[in-house]
Amino acid sequence: MNWDDLRFFLVLAQEGTLSGAARRLRKEHTTVARRVEALEQAVGTKLFDRMPGGWRLTPDGQQLVPLAERVEEDALAFERMANSSEIARGVVRISVPPVAGRILFAPRLAALLAEHQGLEFELIGSSHVANLARREADIAVRMVTPTEPGLIAQKLAEVGVGLYGAHDYVANIPEESWELCGYDDTSYGLSKAEWVRRLLGRDILCRLRANDTASVQAFVAAGLGVGVLPRYLGDNDSRLTLIREDEKGESREPIWLVVHPDMRRSPRVRLVMNALIDASRNIAEEFQL
């Protein structure tokens, strides 16, 4: 049996579809199917029922999931321990929200690459919270407070926000007729909508929602309404007018650096962590966070 096939089995069991498993594993969906079928042949039993809406675990497959999880946990612990004793070279995978990664951190990691020729970076720009225990990333930069047990977290900075609108929209649409380009109905989105309500002193109609900052920025720039954006993004967009800033700090967003304790001992990971901490100080000064 190819033990690596267990990883494909577990991810498919968690996602329930070939396409979802392929995205997480960064493989083709045909590869996922082939590896799982190889595992079924190796163990001599059917692990999934192929349904029109996805792949459903069979009773035998359900019984094997806890065992496969223990094997994966031990394998990941072995890998983390092995990586903790190496020199500062190799790939460091950094999970960071797409906009923050592109604007705030990516430019500031260039000097580290130039100085350490043995290092490689892989920025995973996704709003998905990477599972550090499963090595989906080595380091995570998050805009939400970490809640997983057993991780080490350090607050890097707090990001100021503002209420923005396109120049023509703010100039030509009466304030009482403004609409909100908002975020989805998560705690983050609801808190931003509540801040706008307090800021304007009234409820505001919201007919456009998105789960990422770049989309909200695009909605606002297109003149579809006003929206809450980080200052580092809105202040540098020539299409937008800053209507109100968060003077009281009611809606500031923390930036957290998160790492698994085993990976913190890795020289290459420590090097990148220190670079991100230094970068956050420069970011705070440049964008007046």
**Could you name the CATH topology of the largest domain?**
D-Maltodextrin-Binding Protein, domain 2
Number of discrete domains: 3
Strand arrangement across the biggest beta sheet: 4-3-5-12-6
| Total of DSSP H or I helical runs spanning 4+ residues | 11
Major sheet: 5 strands, mixed
Global shape? globular
What gyration radius follows from the Cα positions, in whole Å?
23 Å
Helix content: 40-55%
Short structural summary:
It contains eleven helices and twelve strands. The protein is of the alpha/beta class and 289 residues long.
Task: Characterise the protein shown here.
Belongs to the LysR transcriptional regulatory family. It is globular, with a radius of gyration of 23 Å. Helix 7 (187-200) links the parallel strand 8 (179-183) and strand 9. The termini are far apart. With 289 residues, the protein is of the alpha/beta class. The longest helix has 25 residues, at 59-83. Helices cover 47% and strands 24% of the residues. It has helices at 5-15, 18-25, 29-43, 59-83, 98-115, 167-172, 187-200, 213-221, 231-234, 261-264, 267-287, and strands at 48-51, 54-57, 90-96, 119-125, 139-142, 152-159, 161-166, 179-183, 205-210, 227-230, 240-245, 253-259. The chain contains eleven helices and twelve strands. The protein folds into three domains: 3-86, Winged helix-like DNA-binding domain superfamily/Winged helix DNA-binding domain (Arc Repressor Mutant, subunit A, Orthogonal Bundle); 89-159 and 253-288, D-Maltodextrin-Binding Protein, domain 2 (3-Layer(aba) Sandwich), CATH 3.40.190.10; 161-245, D-Maltodextrin-Binding Protein, domain 2 (3-Layer(aba) Sandwich), CATH 3.40.190.10. The mean pLDDT is 85.
